[in-house]
């Protein structure tokens, strides 16, 4: 059972009637240059300062992950599932849907890895948590007062804070695009209708 109150559900679960769009890559165009990863990491770095090699003080943390398989390279990222298994598996309700985007609240996240195991696409990763360039340390309740870097679950949020996802805007090969389920369905139906029409025409002769 969800732990959100009714008011929170109204705020965070504004589910629409449209299917959730997501970013998809064309493996035939991708050359594995990792520009999408760098653009993603830069777009999600707090602060307005332009990041360069000389002033980056935290590890590059993209929210999509380039996968190589032989001669093929393609980025993998969140599909923003309609009934997201990551959200269903989260024990602290750190994952919610807002305007067709599945989001993770890093302040609620406890780093339990449940969402990682639940995601069928491997699109979620645990990332070290930083605050103003400094690692956030959590104190474990052990006798030796051990300290450990804090982690949070991270994945594509479709750059909800930008007009266009950074990976799409910066891909040099135009290999990434927003996949609109309704548009895809319409185009497939039109193609099927044309095919059937051609078949019927040939059969009538």
TrEMBL record:
Coiled coil: none annotated. The keyword Iron-sulfur applies. Residues 21-49, 100-129 form the 4Fe-4S ferredoxin-type domain. Signal peptide: none annotated. It holds the Pfam family Fer4_11. CDD domains: HycB_like. One of its GO terms (molecular function) is metal ion binding. It comes from the Bacteria. The keyword Iron-sulfur applies. Keywords: 4Fe-4S, Iron, Iron-sulfur, Metal-binding. SUPFAM superfamilies: 4Fe-4S ferredoxins. Gene3D superfamilies: 3.30.70.20. PANTHER family: PROTEIN NRFC, PROTEIN NRFC HOMOLOG. This is FdhB1. It comes from Desulforapulum autotrophicum (strain ATCC 43914 / DSM 3382 / VKM B-1955 / HRM2) (Desulfobacterium autotrophicum). The lineage of its organism: Bacteria, Pseudomonadati, Thermodesulfobacteriota, Desulfobacteria, Desulfobacterales.
